[in-house]
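Onboarding guide, step 5: your first structure request.
Type a short instruction followed by the sequence, for example:

Predict the 3D structure of this protein.
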Amino acid sequence: MASSCILLLSGGLDSATCLLIARREGLEVHALSFDYGQRHAIELECAREIARRYGAASHRIARLDLAAPSASVLTDPNQAVPRDALGDTSIPATYVPARNTVFLAHALAWAEAIGARDLMLGANALDYSGYPDCRPEFLEAFERMANLATKAGVEGERFRVRAPLLALSKAQIVSLGAELGLDFSITTSCYDPSDDGRPCGACDSCLLRGKGFREAGIADPRSGVRP
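The system replies with structure tokens like these:
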């Protein structure tokens, strides 16, 4: 029986690449996405297609009712998503309070229930480190907690929190995705897409994605960016 993992699948470039990494390793992938009222909900459509096309064993979309949606521009449509802010080292307005902590907690509960021991996510700390819950220190701390706070951990099983893209540049991630055969057109990165899903091209996520494709020398079919 194949080993299995729970993968946080946002529908973006990074998590889609992680799915392909897990499949290359022979892991049975159980994908977990979240509908938390995000303005870029188009990512859930992409997540469904990515999970279907690349052989996820299952895919769940969990609904979260955030207590304070006004705390982030991603969950408050009355706030404007910052434009042309790439390179600002402060914690960005797109930060959603404790999001990865909440997501990983759900993943951990599902993992323990089905006997999976790997939690995988597309966190990256090299090209853009503004999110405190993408730092290696956070992921290491969550892994320790997972092994302290679960029946499986107490009984000697070991959970691993895996972020295989953590130390890669966006260009390296794009190159790896291409090597693994990822169809970039079914991924989305934009924080403020149009109603039909077209990327805005100016939010920090769009700018970072464009930079990665240009530096990798690969055209992006989603945004039209060319090297």
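Each response can be followed by summary notes, for example: Strands lie at 4-8, 28-35, 58-63, 118-120, 160-162.
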